[in-house]
Amino acid sequence: MTKKQSYLFTLIVIIAAISLVFAGPSWAKVEGDTIIFGAAVSFTGKYSTNGKHTKNGYDLVVKRVNEMGGVKVGDKTYKIDIKYYDDESTPARAGQLADRLIKQDEIKFILGPYGSGPTKGIAPITEKYKIPMVEGNGASRSLFNKGYRYIFAVLSTSEQYLAESINLLAEKFKEDGRDPKSAKVAIAVENDPFSMDIRAGVVDDAKRWGMKVVIDDKLPKELTDMTATLTKVKALRPDALIVSGHSKGAALAVRQTAQMKVDVPMLAITHCEAADVVGKFGGDANYTLCATQWAPTMTYKDEWFGFAGDYAEAFEKEYGYVPPYQAAESSAAVLVYVDALQRAGNFDTEKVRDAIAATNLQTFYGWVKFDETGKNIAKPMVLRQIQKGKYVPVAPRKFAAGEVIFPKPKWKDR
User: Fold this and answer.
1) Sequence-distant (≥ 6) Cβ neighbours of residue 332 within 8 angstroms
2) 252-272, pLDDT tens digit by residue?
3) What CATH number does residue 239 fall under?
4) Which of 81, 95, 279, 280 is the most buried (most CB within 10 A)?
5) Is residue 280 domain-shared with residue 195, that is, in the same domain?
6) 357 sits in which H/E element
7) What are the two backbone dihedrals, phi and then psi, of residue 146, each rounded to the nearest 5 degrees?
8) Residue 191 within a domain
9) How far apart are CA 90 and CA 333, in angstroms?
10) Within 100-191, where are the H helices?
11) What is the pLDDT along the chain (414 residues), one digit of tens a residue?
12) Domain that includes residue 228, residue range
């Protein structure tokens, strides 16, 4: 081999190596006619109940999209599939698995885990490798103030979840001829990013109305007992008790307020449906206010499922229970990818990322449109009250389907 040939050969090898380095992260993993997404989801640990809802939401929409012919990318149509790992309900493990999905499994499109903690574990990884992640269950506002470019959330952020309960309390006080400043609020939340953001939103709105926060407790780590908080509620008699602790916290609040006969005019919690508080506790769950991202009675519509109620019917037929919003928002995350891939027309991750950022899409779950931080700015939160075992939307009141019952009847009168 001449010196010139040797130089050309070396140059070709270098160019090929560079091409491999840069081509790897730029294109989605496609096996035959199937696009592979990746997800680390909680199958074990404290988030396992909602992890199941998350996976079911992903799997249902994958099945539906594939049955309808798949995703058209350029001139070809593809099926979709998801590779799962169990993040064990821990942020560190979620981050490790995201790294594995991207580097070892060579998957370039990530779907979010359940919970703000695990999502926080993954976000720096997807940002590092410039891999888009569309998620529906990481609501912490701290995910969206770090300048991340590759995370997109279809849900409303967590500070909005129960803040509306404070506005509702103020409105009811004014209707009764009382000054909202005289209202007393009790807060009991899990010490995790999601629940602490909910607390922040409630505290901000309470301050705005001049209300006094008389109890501000952190729930025990294992979420097995809130007797200490409820004893204080009995003594201090707040007008509202706000609780956030995912599914375990929701069940705990409903069960123990009934067991201890805690009379509080307003009880507002998250994760009512995910915890199945009506199925587990029957009439004891009545009059509870439940924050929700979505409900089957909403009139949102899309080309894949039809109306929100049609999605709920399909989900219940597949899995045997009414879909909680955690499942619905997970399904919506996949639909955002489907829409973005079709508009991008290829598998270049940066082009798909830009297509996701430009999303303006109505789904059965609601409108999805992202701001520059990746938050969905097109869909409001809703408060529903359990009335005779049914979830009735009561706030924001201009969108309400029914009137809130306030104060809650005392236990001796129920």
Assistant:
1) 136, 154, 363, 364, 365, 366, 368
2) 999 999 999 999 999 999 999
3) 3.40.50.2300
4) 95
5) yes
6) helix 349-357
7) -110, 5
8) yes
9) 21
10) 116-129, 163-175
11) 555 444 444 444 343 343 333 333 345 678 889 999 999 999 999 999 999 999 999 999 999 999 999 999 999 999 999 999 999 999 999 999 999 999 999 999 999 999 999 999 999 999 999 999 999 999 988 999 999 999 999 999 888 899 889 999 999 999 999 999 999 999 999 998 889 999 999 999 999 999 999 999 999 888 999 999 999 999 999 999 999 999 999 999 999 999 999 999 999 999 998 899 999 999 999 999 999 888 888 888 999 999 999 999 999 999 999 999 999 999 999 999 999 999 999 999 999 999 999 999 999 999 999 999 999 999 888 899 999 999 998 988 776 788 999 999 999 999
12) 160-292+381-413
First vs last Cα of the chain: how many Å apart?
A: 95
3 occurs within a structural domain: no
| AA identity, residue 164 | E
Residues 172 and 404: beta-carbon distance below 8 Å? yes
Q: Find where tokens 């493990």 sit.
A: 93
Quote the number of domains for the chain.
2
Q: Both 283 and 304 in a single domain?
A: no
Residues 6 or more apart whose CB falls under 8 angstroms from that of 266 comprise: 165, 168, 169, 239, 240, 241, 289, 406, 407, 408
CA–CA gap between residue 137 and residue 153 (Å, rounded): 8
Q: Are 78 and 52 in contact (CB under 8 A)?
A: no
Tokens read off for 231? 């004893």
DSSP string, 177-245: T--GGG-EEEEEE-SSHHHHHHHHHHHHHHHHHT-EEEEEEEPPTT----HHHHHHHHHH--SEEEEE-
Cα dihedral across residues 201, 139, 366, 147: positive or negative: positive
Is residue 65, in this structure, part of any structural domain at all?
yes
Same domain for 108 and 39 = yes
**Is 206 part of any domain?**
yes
